[in-house]
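Note to self: user wants both folds in one dump. Writing first protein now.
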Amino acid sequence: AGPTYEKIDPVRFIGNYSSGKMGFALAEECARRGAQVTLITGPVQLKTQHSGIIRVDVESAEEMYKAAQAHFPDADAGILCAAVADYRPETVADKKIKREKTGGMSLDLKPTQDIAARLGEMKKQHPGKVLVGFALETNDEQHNAEDKLNRKNLDFIVLNSLNDKGAGFRYDTNKISIIDRNGKKDYPLKSKAEVAADIVDHLAEVMKRE
């Protein structure tokens, strides 16, 4: 759940607007139904409520990648709801970068580790595990989501669009579509707690089939 922060120097980072609300709602819904939940979360202001949730706090994409790899082998299912940075600075300054009087500043970025792709590979060695991905898109939504579903060996993917009012980062509501290899199901705008219940309903159906 949540964002990742990729350090530029000791006081600056590259991040995104994710609040973690959707991921925390999913963790709470799974725990409410009796699951033992390990919640790996980036830096957010939220607190967990259910005693069945074990929280693992991380900051960077690399830390989230390592934590996800460590915990996935013991899990029956993984829900990849975090807004993980795709790039991080190639070098991190050890002191605060001072503003220059003239000229600009450029950053060289390199790709972060792909958590979904890695867990999709691990899933091949562990039949019966279920892997759920998320796609937040601004254009070609369904095409991009279906491509991600197949490339990363996901069982289904939850699509939300920044073009939908009331959906996406920071809102208490969300509007999703669930896409799997049998097709696409659209849901109306709901609270994130209600959306979490819809997603976990679908997850439970998939796990029964597995």
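First done. Writing the second protein, which came from a different request thread.
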Amino acid sequence: RAGGEGAHRLGRGGEPVGLAPQRVGVRCYKSGARDGGDSHFRAAVGSGTYIRSLARELGEALGCGAHLTALRRLAVGAFTVEEAISLDALRAGAAAVRPLLAAVAHLARADIDATAVDRVRRGQALEAAFAAAGPVALTHGGELVAIARPHESRWQPEVVLAS
């Protein structure tokens, strides 16, 4: 992103885009089939890694240039394409939707009482029950209430799901 604006938008608008190099995590890279000048690959990457940029940079390193003609996301965190359900199946009631807590299972979790839930609904910060290095999933009665960010000795709600 360049100044908060998507670099692809700036580029398509004809504006020059100067982006600083960023360190990214590529946990796995596997070359696949080749078809003429096309090469297929799979990559497991960390958050903030742009596969289109990775392909371009690999082409530059090889001295031949490269770009993506197709991109398919196979997983995000614990969610995989094999577990995906179709919209039609969901509409027909033939598919179960995973609980919200499954989407944030990687976050620290804190159960809060009903008084704290009311405060969170109003966007008010809570005293942190423990030190957290990143976002915290706030729950009540086994349900996800909010995602909060630690700020000093408090948790500030950023995404509130309780109504």
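Dump finished. Worth passing along: The chain has five helices and nine strands.
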